[in-house]
Amino acid sequence: VGDRLTRPKITSGGDVASMSGSVSFEKISATESWRVFDAAARRCLGLGADELVRRWDAGDYVDSDSVELMQVIMLRPSGG
Amino acid sequence: VAGSTPSAAVKAFTKPIQDALSCFVDGKVTADRYDTDSEGVLVFNRAEPTRLPGQARIHVAISMRYRVVQAVDEARGPWKVSTTGWIYDVLDRRKARVVAYHWHPISDSHAKHPHMHIAELGDKRHFPTGRILIEDVLQLAIDLGAKPRDESKWNRIAGRNRSNFALGATWGTGHPSAIDD
Question: What is the pLDDT of residues B28-79, one digit of tens each?
Fold first, then answer.
């Protein structure tokens, strides 16, 4: 059983999936949370978090129904 | 999900999420708040698409908002975590969206109720949903071709998580049939 839990499994499709993996937990700082938010803004919307927040707070997106916008703005840290 | 301290409540909240995701992949769940006067943000792998095992190469991107509140039932408290929003994205092998489950009541103009976007039907439509659990998202991923590392373990953990969640949930507990497991 232990071997099965630790040996990487190679499927016929070439996928490699570790059988020993785990998902850890970490409490992150407000600064790190902002970095996550900023990275998502740049990846999904092509602009930085500072600019996104400025536009959001100014009401520029009141009429927007963008899925990507909501995906990103939900990452905005409280107080940020 | 309750705890003796706010931090314990957050950790108790994230534990079943960690367990469910670890049936598929490695990674990290992060949360940015333990305090009780503001919403926190919880993400898996920085809210970036994470590929699940399986030849279909399904990806998921997961984020939630939460608040640490005092539990009404002191025996399960004194602190618990209440979910205040979620974004669950299920993507295909090219990281193109298949389905997005949203609940974002922070929005003024968007749909404030839990809903889903189905890419094939156009992103602008908001299809109402009930409460969506991580287990629901991962089960859809399985339906689309993702493979849990150990299917029996996944079934056990998903059933356990649903049952435990139902004990403390104030609304929406996922599939009623699974709660009997």
Answer: 999 999 999 899 999 999 999 999 999 999 999 999 999 999 987 766 678 9
> Is B118 in contact with B127 (CB distance < 8 Å)?
yes
Please count the other Cβ atoms lying within 10 Å of the Cβ belonging to residue B143. 11
Residue of B nearest to A32 (CA): B32
Query: Which chain B residues touch A36 with a CB distance below 8 Å?
Result: 30, 41, 43, 46-47
What single letter denotes the amino acid at residue B154? W
Q: For residues A45 and A68, is the Cβ–Cβ distance under 8 A?
A: yes
Is A39 in the B-facing interface, judged by CB distances under 8 Å? yes
User: What is the rounded distance in angstroms from the CA atom of residue B79 to the CA atom of residue B177?
Assistant: 29
Q: Which structure tokens are listed for B120? A: 């094939």
CA distance A31 to chain B (A): 9
Could you say which of A19, A73, A78 has the minimum Cβ distance to residue B33? A78
In this prediction, residue B54 carries a pLDDT of 97
CB atoms within 10 A of CB B146: 23
